[in-house]
Amino acid sequence: MVQLAPAAAMDEVTFRSDTVLSDVHLYTPNHRHLMVRLNSVGQPVFLSQFKLLWSQDSWTDSGAKGGDHRDIHTKEPPSAETSGTGSPPGSGHGNEGFSLQAGADTTGQEVAEAQLDEDGDLDVVRRPRAASDSSPAGPLRDKVHPMILAQEEDDDIVGEEAQGSPHDIIRIEHTMATPLEDVGKQVWRGALLLADYILFRQDLFRGCTALELGAGTGFASIIAATMARTVYCTDVGADLLAMCQRNIALNSHLAAAGGGVVKVKELDWLKDDLCTDPEVPFSWSQEEISDLYDHTTILLAAEVFYDDDLTDAVFKTLSRLAHRLKNACTAILSVEKRLNFTLRHLDVTCEAYDHFRSCLRALEQLRDGNLHFVVEPVEASFPQLLVYERIRQLELWKIVAEPVT
């Protein structure tokens, strides 16, 4: 939970040591925050706008393969001087290489000589952080954050964009920092990566029924609903599900344009059966359960692999659902490989990611006589239509559940 420093102004938020803050929100300037309310547990809720960068270049250029995919800041075609072949506009992959040795590279072009300081150490020339720099020394390096509206300009900006192209804007309510158990109330890069993949693979999602596990703010489900027939957006916790429902309502025009429907439901990975108690908010009706099992072909999950016990529960839920569905299904999982220094190892490790990979291997080796699971990584070379830093540690994995013949 966020606590304000005793002597600080209202816009100077100090985070306690037990809070978790998403990288998507980390670099957001304080004066751009729009706090819309407090949730039921007293956490500030903010409203952010995420703009879809629709452009011809975004669809035709697949981006640099396997590298550090930077943000796409413009809809203009890439300049030959700033973008190399296969790099998206603003990706920062063009003409940025520096050699530690003077001379020529393999193409015969000269490369920059290494600059050393007075002590003989390498003097790294950094790109400017802001586009306002009057004389930048190299390609611009803007801070990475979603557009956060200020209170006084909210109505004007939303009005202008609604008149222009409302289908380019996704509005999401979220928190800025939470305890670990409430991380679903934030927006994470893995959800944006999954959303990009959904937009890229419209053939896979068009007209389907999809289920998202651990949907959090509902970002990926909202994107999926622009193509899918029905999206079951699931998580646990009445406060989180209410926030998710509000985000679905804020973006209902996107789903309506494609004829899609989003249903926010409770799905607890630690329970075998779906909740059908009509007294419980976001419970399931028998008709919805029948539709789920009869028509679902896509399962989604993003950034839910941060705790070993929960990761085990996610994979058990995936397996259980795959066996109950009448049709063969495909699961798309988004994960970020997070590196942490631990005192136990006295080294940098990524234990949560390692456990995730071990669960993938166990699922692939599972033989129960009815289904077999094919696991493969998805190369993150598809177009980037949302503004975020597509770092090398972001990964997508595809699991196809097929009947044993």
Automatic annotation (TrEMBL):
<keyword id="KW-0808">Transferase</keyword>
<keyword id="KW-0597">Phosphoprotein</keyword>
<keyword id="KW-0949">S-adenosyl-L-methionine</keyword>
<comment type="function">
    <text>Protein N-lysine methyltransferase.</text>
</comment>
<dbReference type="GO" id="GO:0032259">
    <property type="term" value="P:methylation"/>
</dbReference>
<dbReference type="Pfam" id="PF10294">
    <property type="entry name" value="Methyltransf_16"/>
</dbReference>
<dbReference type="GO" id="GO:0032991">
    <property type="term" value="C:protein-containing complex"/>
</dbReference>
<keyword id="KW-0489">Methyltransferase</keyword>
<comment type="subunit">
    <text>Interacts with members of the heat shock protein 90 and 70 families; these proteins probably are methylation substrates.</text>
</comment>
<dbReference type="InterPro" id="IPR019410">
    <property type="entry name" value="Methyltransf_16"/>
</dbReference>
<feature type="compositionally biased region" description="Basic and acidic residues">
    <location>
        <begin position="66"/>
        <end position="78"/>
    </location>
</feature>
<dbReference type="GO" id="GO:0005654">
    <property type="term" value="C:nucleoplasm"/>
</dbReference>
<dbReference type="InterPro" id="IPR038899">
    <property type="entry name" value="METTL22"/>
</dbReference>
<keyword id="KW-0539">Nucleus</keyword>
<dbReference type="GO" id="GO:0005730">
    <property type="term" value="C:nucleolus"/>
</dbReference>
<dbReference type="InterPro" id="IPR029063">
    <property type="entry name" value="SAM-dependent_MTases_sf"/>
</dbReference>
<dbReference type="GO" id="GO:0016279">
    <property type="term" value="F:protein-lysine N-methyltransferase activity"/>
</dbReference>
<dbReference type="GO" id="GO:0031072">
    <property type="term" value="F:heat shock protein binding"/>
</dbReference>
<feature type="region of interest" description="Disordered">
    <location>
        <begin position="61"/>
        <end position="101"/>
    </location>
</feature>
<protein>
    <recommendedName>
        <fullName>Methyltransferase-like protein 22</fullName>
    </recommendedName>
</protein>
<feature type="region of interest" description="Disordered">
    <location>
        <begin position="116"/>
        <end position="144"/>
    </location>
</feature>
<comment type="similarity">
    <text>Belongs to the methyltransferase superfamily. METTL22 family.</text>
</comment>
